[in-house]
Every structure is written in structure tokens, then in C-alpha cells.
Amino acid sequence: MSTAESVIGTRRGSRPPLLISNHHLALQHLISTPPTHLILNMPIAVGETIPKGEFGVVEYSPELEDASVCGMPSKISTDSWKGKKVVVFGVPGAFTPTCSVNHLPPYLEKYDELKSKGVDAVYCIASNDVFVMSAWGRVLHTSDKVTCISDSALTWLDAAGLSQDLSHVGFGKRAARFAAVIDDLKVTYIGIESGGGVGPSGVEAVLAKL
Asked: In this structure, how many other beta carbons lie within 10 angstroms of the beta carbon of residue 20?
């Protein structure tokens, strides 16, 4: 393999790894380091009730282990989170390097710890369409642990102040990189990235607040 490429690792015997060129890594650096003024609305704060929302999802089933199966899209509502403790983390885009290497996989690795601290469900949200989110989750083997959900119109993300403008890299409006702990529809933790990498939106930051 060329030294100008990096790999998003996959399990032995699984689908071929994703190759990431240095050009893609440079683009991801720009995506990961937006000026703070690009966050479009005032973000939701601890103690506030989340806005009502509905998201696209392809629920996990064993049949989806076959890459040729698309799955049937459906909807989930924030109403289903009432009386539950859920973790929602947002990413600017599926199949992008930081999101695929440093953000989502640690939530999978620490899933049992999250559950042991009373978390009922873990969701990854982005503005990619529901089929892209499903495909990305399958590539990263999220199975029934991390549910990848789509807010393609950014309706909920805008209402929660968790969207950003990435027009400077040709991406338009996207989800901010964030993590939130939501307990019975109220925010008990919110971490939004203002620089590069994964810090307050990462699983370790979330675990520390549970």
C-alpha cells in the first residue's frame, strides 16, 4: 500500500477496507476545524428539553449482514426516548475519516460501559440520507449497538442548535460534531467540538458525565 494512503480497518474476512488518501485527510481536517461562528443557532443547553423530532432509520437485522440487502427504511421519534437515558452523538458526514476512525468506533468499543451506567440506547446522527447511514453502520459493524439515524433535512439538528455551515469545503449545512446525554427528554450533558479532533463529543467525555 502507498504511504499516501490510510485505512479504515475492518474485521478479518469482512468487506474490503476503506482507503483514505492524504487529500481526503486534509479535507477532513477542514471539516473538523470549522470557525466557531459557523455553528448556525444557539445550541441546546443542559437542563433543557430536546425539541420533538423524527428520524430516518434502517433498523438492524441479521439480513443486513449481506451487503446486497438495502433494508426497509422506517421512522423513529424522540417520543420513544421518553423515560429513557439515551446518548446521541452527531457527525458531519458518514464515510469521512475522523467520523469513521476516531468518533463512532470508540462508542462501539465502550458500548458495554455505557450500558452499565444506565444508558438505554446509543444513536449516531448525521444529515446523510437513511441508506447512506445504514451502509456506513454496516461497514463499521455497528449491528444493534449504535443505531445510525438520518436527519437529512436538518429539522431536529437546526431546532437543537446542532448544525453547522460547511460551505467553505463544499459540504453545505451539516450536523455539528457533538455528543449529548438525554435523560427523559432533558439534556444532562452536551459537548460540542469547537476545534479539530474528538474531545467533548467523544465517548470518554460522555462516560465521565454519566
From this structure: 20
What kind and span of H or E run contains 28? helix 22-32
The whole-angstrom separation of Cα 64 and Cα 134 is: 9
Cα 193 from Cα 128, distance rounded (Å): 19
User: Residue 77 forms beta bridges with which residues?
Assistant: 54
Residues 81, 54 contacting (CB under 8 angstroms): no
Question: Pairing state of beta strands 178-183 and 85-90?
Answer: antiparallel
How far are the Cα atoms of 33, 88, 124, 138, 143 from residue 148, in angstroms, in the given order?
23, 10, 5, 10, 10
Residue position matching grid coordinates 449516531: 124
Q: Answer positive or negative: Cα dihedral of 83, 85, 91, 95.
A: negative
- CB atoms closer than 10 angstroms to residue 167: 11
Between CA 179 and CA 91 the distance in angstroms is: 9
- Residues in the chain predicted with pLDDT less than 70, given as ranges, are 1-40
Q: What does the pLDDT read at residue 37? A: 42
- pLDDT of 6 reads 32
What amino acid is encoded at 98 in this protein?
Answer: T
Enzyme catalytic residues: 99
In the structure grid, which three cell numbers stand for residue 60, read together? 438492524
Element spanning 104, H or E: helix 104-109
Grouping H, G, I as helix, E, B as strand and the rest as coil, residue 80 is helix
Q: Are 163 and 174 in contact (CB under 8 A)?
A: yes
